[in-house]
Every structure is written in structure tokens, then in C-alpha cells.
Specification:
185 residues; disordered C terminus; 5 strands; single chain; 3-stranded antiparallel β-sheet; 6 helices
Length: 185
């Protein structure tokens, strides 16, 4: 009986160390790939590539000079930028979920540990899915801004965010999978 109990304790401790190491390697690991993807969206105006998102400003700011010429397009761009700002409820919910996960790693009671780990993981997962869904839904505003500008103005803006994905598309005709390509929090 004691041999089984000792092996169970070793497995729990090793699993805890593995998960904690995995968490910290993700937390402190390099995330250059996600930064490159965010900044690589381009639009073509007069045969020149214009960065849609720059590092120093809001998303979509690279198109503002052209979209300001049309009031409807400017309104969609402003809506896009307001909706892509940091949402504090998402940040708080993600922090609470991470805190529950960490509390689950460091508690000694096995019943409490399981409760904290499951509730923390569920909180982080739900927070991620809600934030990603809102982000994908907000892209419609940027596309509408470009469409409205192109209806009434020259030079035309050629912008298709679906074709700028070098890794292959995770979308099908009439159906998009929002969480399939970017797992950043």
C-alpha cells in the first residue's frame, strides 16, 4: 500500500513540475512569430505596399490617411480601432484564471487542487474563446471601411486579410475557424 502511495505522490509531483515548467516556458518564451504576423498585413495602394498595422500605433492606422477621405469609411475605421482596444474584463478574467491555475499547482489538498486546476483552465479557455471571437468579428469593420472607400474614391485599396496568411488558410467557403491559427493570449 505504501509503495503505491509513494508512486502516486511521485507522479503528482512530476506532473506538477512538468505543467509548471510548460507554463513558465510559454510565459517567458519568445513570441516573435505572433508579432511578425500582426505587423505583416499589407494593403496595396497605387502599386505600393502599405502596412495596415504598425507597431507604434493602433491597428489599421496605416490606412487612416486614405480612409479619412470618406466619412463612412472613417467611421468604420474608428469603430474597428475602438473595438480592438484592450478590454479590461478580458484581462481581469484571464488573470483570475491564471491565478486559479497557479493556486492549484501550489495547494497541498488534492481535492482543492483538482477544483482549482479545472476551474482555472476553464476560465482561461472561455476567456480566450470570447476574446478571439470578438477579435475575429471586429475584422468586419476594417473590411467594410475599405469597401466603402473603394466605392467612392481613387486610388483603390486592395486589401484581403485572408490571402496574407503564409501558413495556409483555416477557412472554408462561407465558414471561418477563428481560433485555428493564432493561439496567443
Amino acid at each position: 500500500m505504501s509503495l503505491y502511495y509513494n508512486q502516486k505522490i511521485k507522479i503528482e509531483v512530476n506532473l506538477r513540475h512538468f505543467l509548471l515548467g510548460l507554463f513558465f516556458s510559454y510565459l517567458f518564451g519568445g513570441h516573435q512569430a505572433s508579432a511578425v504576423e500582426t505587423c505583416s498585413r499589407v494593403a496595396i495602394i497605387n502599386y505600393q505596399e502599405i502596412l495596415v498595422d504598425s507597431n507604434a500605433s493602433e491597428k489599421g492606422e496605416g490606412l487612416r490617411y486614405h480612409l479619412e477621405k470618406d466619412p463612412v469609411a472613417k467611421q468604420y475605421l474608428d469603430s474597428y480601432q475602438n473595438n480592438s482596444a484592450i478590454r479590461w474584463p478580458n484581462a481581469l478574467l484571464g488573470t483570475a484564471g491564471t491565478g486559479l491555475l497557479l493556486l492549484g499547482f501550489f495547494t497541498t489538498n488534492s481535492e482543492d487542487r483538482q477544483t482549482y486546476l479545472i476551474s482555472g483552465a476553464a476560465t482561461v479557455l472561455v476567456n480566450f474563446l470570447v476574446a478571439r471571437t470578438l477579435e475575429v468579428a471586429n475584422e468586419v469593420n476594417l473590411n467594410r471601411a475599405v469597401e466603402e472607400y473603394n466605392k467612392r474614391n481613387l486610388p483603390k485599396i486592395y486589401f484581403n486579410p485572408d490571402t496574407t496568411n503564409p501558413q495556409g488558410s483555416a477557412s472554408f467557403p462561407g465558414f471561418k475557424i477563428g481560433a485555428a491559427m493564432d493561439w496567443s493570449f
